[in-house]
Design goal:
23 strands; Aldehyde Dehydrogenase, Chain A, domain 2; Aldehyde Dehydrogenase, Chain A, domain 1
């Protein structure tokens, strides 16, 4: 496979400690210029069967015999190995996603290492319930719970934060003693395979971590979720895909954990720290070119500061540098694909049709170089749409927000909660009582007050409504990836 005189990289499946080719391949594109950077081996039904079989076998091997302390030690070694190969992970993540190198260096790769360390430490200190029970005949019984692995976990991850969200699931699954079969997004296959090399280096036994590449329907994703020997499925991605997976696993009543889409709101009150709010909302809207499930697409601003805020956010958006992800001064890279760019641009067109006022953006930047072949859009702000508009109700997943005024706290809360999603919200106010009061009224999984994207990995994370099922983080992840077995002994 050659492109000119350059040998294309091959990205292979990883099954039972070996890198494996498939019968078919597909191209991995660089979103910054549309070039083919690798050929990816697609896993067919047979390879998915092999991966699940290897994972099942590993449960009965040395991995299944290791105790918590040994597993935790190995997970720390995985974290160390990620940091040793830090530059390799950054390069792979940037090439696959098009995100700025500074973002990948500060967020994605450090969080990947942190995920392994956090869950290695949480599992070592995780306690279980025990009760001394009085029996009807006046004697006693002891009830206590033990934690057992679920078995083979099917993990399906998205393209926007591929390494971060992969390790967010793999780390607690392995900490609990499970084995995993991972299906990364076909858009971003590189870091899942690179992590396989790290697993090998860290002494994780063969079959514990497996990777199958491919697509959803009639490909690796469907084969994995339908597999009878997969004990649980965890997925992060679009709500529609989550619904399809739920239908697939319903017949076998598998445990599922879904973190899905969002149409997140921010409420900006007149008493906010103005500069802090503008900077925070700008990051919440435009980070990773708006391709984060937690990004803000609806901004509600108290009318007294509405015009001033819109003007300041406009200046902030126009100061962002859109360009090559390899340049350290770049703030916004491309969208993930030409198809996703067309989706985002279709919403830009729809916003105008629905009567929006374009504050800034709404188009495609021009570079005059190879970046014009990439999948870029301008950072965009709209105002003037009714709350019933599709652009206010539907997730766009790009660098765009709609800003609307409100007059009362009750009105702001009502508009923020008027959505089928329920993932995240942010509140911007210097009134401490209001911050607590409004935050507790948000129908979402996580609410920030005077900040955004600040996470403690021990706390519950997830959404309501179309934003998902279940919670991840700390003990919540351990409880999903474990079978809790109560033992009752009559004394």
């Amino acid at each position: 496979m050659r492109r000119g005189s350059r040998q294309l990289k091959s990205i292979l499946n990883y099954i039972d400690g070996q890198f494996v080719r498939g019968k078919r391949e597909f191209a991995d594109l660089n979103p910054a210029d549309g070039s083919v950077i690798a050929q990816v081996a697609e896993a067919d039904q047979g390879l998915v069967d092999d991966a699940v079989r290897a994972a099942r076998k590993a449960l009965r091997g040395e991995w299944g015999r290791w105790g918590i302390r040994e597993r935790a030690t190995r997970l720390h070694k995985v974290a160390d190995a990620i940091e040793t190969r830090f530059d390799c992970f950054v390069a792979a993540e940037v090439a696959d996603t098009g995100k700025p190198v500074e973002l990948a260096s500060k967020l994605d790769v450090p969080r990947a290492a942190a995920n392994f360390r956090v869950f290695a430490d949480v599992i070592k200190t995780a306690g279980m319930e025990s009760f001394q029970t009085e029996t009807p005949d006046g004697k006693n019984a002891l009830n206590y719970a033990v934690r057992k692995p679920l078995g083979v976990i099917g993990i399906i991850t998205p393209w926007n934060l591929p390494l971060l969200l992969l390790t967010w699931k793999v780390a607690p699954a392995l900490a609990c003693g499970n084995t995993v079969v991972v299906k990364p997004s076909e858009e971003t296959p590189a870091t899942a395979t690179l992590l396989a090399e790290v697993m090998k280096e860290a002494g994780i036994p063969d079959g514990v971590y497996n990777v199958v590449h491919g697509f959803g329907p009639n490909s690796a994703g469907e084969f994995l979720t339908q597999h009878p020997d997969v004990n649980a499925v965890t997925f992060t991605g679009e709500s529609q895909t989550g619904a399809a997976i739920m239908k697939t696993v319903a017949a076998s009543v598998k445990p599922v954990s879904f973190e899905l889409g969002g149409k997140n709101a921010a409420l900006v009150f007149a008493d906010c720290d103005f500069e802090e709010a503008v900077n925070g909302i700008s990051e919440a809207v435009f980070l990773n070119t708006g391709q984060v499930c937690l990004c803000t697409e609806r901004v509600y601003v108290e009318r007294a500061i509405f015009e001033k805020f819109v003007g300041a956010l406009k200046r902030k958006a126009e100061s962002l540098r859109v360009g090559s992800p390899l340049e350290k001064t770049t703030d916004l890279g491309p969208l993930i694909s030409s198809q996703h760019r067309e989706k985002v641009l279709s919403y830009f067109r729809l916003a105008r049709e629905e009567g929006a006022e374009v504050v800034t953006g709404g188009g495609v930047p021009e570079f005059g170089n190879v970046l014009d072949k990439g999948f870029y859009v301008q950072p965009t702000i709209y105002t003037g749409l009714p709350e019933s508009a599709r652009c206010v109700k539907e997730e766009i997943f790009g660098p765009v927000c709609h800003v609307a005024p409100f007059d009362t706290e009750e009105e702001a809360v009502s508009m923020a909660n008027d959505t089928k999603y329920g993932l995240a919200a942010s509140i911007w106010t210097t009134n401490l009582k209001r911050g607590h009061r409004v935050a507790q009224q948000m129908n979402v999984g996580i609410t920030w007050v005077n900040c955004w994207f600040l996470r403690d990995l021990r706390t519950p994370f997830g959404g309501t409504g179309l934003s998902g099922i279940g919670r991840e983080g700390g003990m919540h992840s351990l409880n999903f990836y474990s079978e809790l077995n109560n033992i009752c002994i009559r004394l």
